[in-house]
Amino acid sequence: MRTPYINPYDIRMIPLAFEGVVLAPEHRRSGLDYMASYLTRYKPWDQGGFISFSEGLGIAESDEGVLITGASYSANGWNIGASNYWIKDSLNTAYGEIDYLLPFGNDDDGPSVRAGVNILDQRTVGADLIAGAPYETYQASARIVTSYRGLVLTGAMSKTGDAADIQKPFGYSTSYTALVVTNFDQADVQAYLVRLSYDLERLGLEGVRLEAAWGKGSGTPDLATNGGFADQEELDLRFVYEPHRGKLQGLRVEVEYIDWQVFDNPTLPSDDLDQFRAIVNYAVPLL
């Protein structure tokens, strides 16, 4: 299962897993696509067994799955999609996205510019069993991605509604400003992100990619809606080695440095998290 709101989120090597039924085309294709699904349970990273989706939202007295419907259209540089996720008596999450590749330049090796906007609407439904209910909130984001000869520059911004944090225990964030540690999805937070990556294949280093990303979020700390947690910054530096042919094909080495800061006042951080991560994956060919 891989959708904007529910997905494996395997960046930390232990992916989320899901149980249920899915109706979708066997192969993704251009043009109109669709999906309908009912998932009964999922397995979080830190547990050995599966739990219900309502339990994942902190509702001990409920045992509900999630009903998912969605459709997308892709053609002539356009990618348009919408999906909805309904969990009985707790939460409904709707997502929409429009992405467009600007039509200039016919050379595959030339510059390209892609622009996109998305919005996630989240609100309590039915018996409103989730903590803090009833409420309605949202997270909207926009981005521009430019690329040229292996160099990719991304600029993005996002805004989260002031009624509540975005609940997303079932996958990676839909926001374009999402980073490794924070996704700037706390209530009433505005965020900005800049990301620069470079593929070193043109320099003779096939499969080597360098990336740097910086994001900043700010808002109004509120104990009732965001736990007093608003202003924050994060810097991510990443080295990736992933050869596409030869004896090492299937190997992926990723090394990351993360610096995340939380601010109680405009100048001095109250909390500072530094992390180094190293991940090595190798897909062994059996045939």
From TrEMBL:
Molecular-function annotations in GO: porin activity
Matching InterPro entries: OM_porin_bac, Porin_dom_sf
Gene3D superfamilies: Porin
Cellular component terms (Gene Ontology): membrane
One Pfam match: OprD
The entry's keywords: Signal, Transport
Family: Belongs to the outer membrane porin (Opr) (TC 1.B.25) family.
Protein's recorded name: Porin
